[in-house]
Amino acid sequence: MSGVEDGSWSDESEWALADIDETGDGEAAAAPEQPVLAVVGRPNVGKSTLVNRILGRREAVVQDIPGVTRDRVAYDALWNGRRFTMVDTGGWNPGARGLQAAITEQAELAIRTADAVLLVVDGIVGATGAEQAVARVLRRSSTPVLLAATKVDDQRAEAETASLWSLGLGQPHPVSGLHGRGTGDLLDALLDVLPESPRDLPGGTGGPRRVALVGKPNVGKSSLLNKLVGEQRAVVHEVAGTTVDPVDSLVELDGQVWRFVDTAGLRKRVNTASGAEYYASLRTRSAVEAAEVAVVLIDAGEPISEQDQRVITSVIESGRALVIALNKWDLVDEDRRHSLSRELERDLKRVPWAERVNISALTGRAVAKLAPRLRTALDSWDRRIPTGQLNAWLSEIIAAKPPPVRGGKQPKVLFATQAGVRPPTIVLFTTGFLEAGYRRFLERRLRESFGFAGSPVRISVRVRERKPR
Q: Cα separation of 233 and 214, whole Å?
């Protein structure tokens, strides 16, 4: 059973509604459409550091090695009362090959879909051949372009940025992402070129459900996102750990618009990771908590690992709805299917309620079946049982199997109510402590009677305190 808590109450005349919120969680309002600013530049010039400075918080993963950011990662920004979306990109390196070529493609896609572009150049190094090639591309574009010279920490370094006029992109704006020098003037200039609203307003349904794609590295999360989107939305490479920042996209699946978020693969516990991996783990945790349902991908061709189980546990602890997708099913033969069946029964016995689907992100096999599983899990996550119906059910269960005796006394369950949804939370008011085994028994019977497929259920026990005589 997930999320079991204990408390106490003493006022018998008010116990039924003490501190119980039966209103549930409301739907989050859909954010208004905002103009988009793409932040581009070659690797390790300080794009993510500048993005964090503009945001006023550490959102983008930063480390003193090139190539930490690899995908297009969007952040909401605010300056002088105007909101806009900043899209941080990986290093743009024309002519690159392999993984770097895929990262460059993501930067180019960001430019094509942006309302304005901020080209970031190392103000100390100056314009290299890569920047000259990038500038030629940007000059041919109809999108407004601003030029930022980073790592300019003092007046002396500012004078050296004059050479950047040679790029033909207008005035270079000297800034220091580390210290914040010049960022206010840069933001004022950005607002001058950003439109009030995006050029292309997508026709949306309002408030798409948020789905986090999670799992260990190289399990196929980015491949699945690309298959769903129908384009190379996330960088995919055989090197494990390619995704560092969460990458989100609106996807139409089975007649409904969803917001899928690709996350970094979780290798270790957050408190044992270091460097970029540590911050990537924090971003993944935040992405799961911001989502409504998580799709945990497991490589069907490999034995279920401790790391797979740890990822599932993190989703349950976050209280999110859960769908388990067994990926790479196209590579599974008959022998592996037989052994996998035994592994699922043994290693995932804690989550028999989780929705499951066998898919192949590479071929697209059964990917469309994700939508019904997601709807089932979310319906359970939102479900509320009327108090009268819940107590009638509880009376029948307790009459058939009362709580076990503890300390020579048998506790009584006096009343139950559902305190909230997302996830469903049941509060039991009792005269004594309920053993963990009996709580698990109640959860099993609750699921048998009311379903809750795909959603964790939290049961809280409040023990009545005896009044002093």
A: 16
CB atoms within 10 A of CB 425: 21
Q: Coil, strand, or helix at residue 324?
A: strand
Q: What's the gap between Cα 287 and its chain centre?
A: 2
**DSSP structure class, residue 200:** S
User: CA triplet 59, 65, 70: central angle to 5 degrees?
Assistant: 55
| For the chain, percent of residues with pLDDT exceeding 70 | 74
351 DSSP 8-state letter = -
> Is pTM, for the whole model, over 0.90?
no
Which DSSP string do the residues of 60-119 spell out, in sequence order?
A: S---SSTT---S-EEEEEEETTEEEEEEE-----TT--HHHHHHHHHHHHHHHH-SEEEE
- Judged against a pLDDT cut of 70, whether residue 95 lies above it is answered with no
- What pLDDT, on the 0 to 100 scale, is given for residue 93? 62
Instruction: Give yes or no for a contact between 34 and 83, defined as CB atoms under 8 angstroms apart.
Output: yes
Half-sphere exposure at residue 370, Cβ-oriented, CA atoms within 13 angstroms:
31
Is the CB of residue 430 less than 8 Å from the CB of residue 463? yes
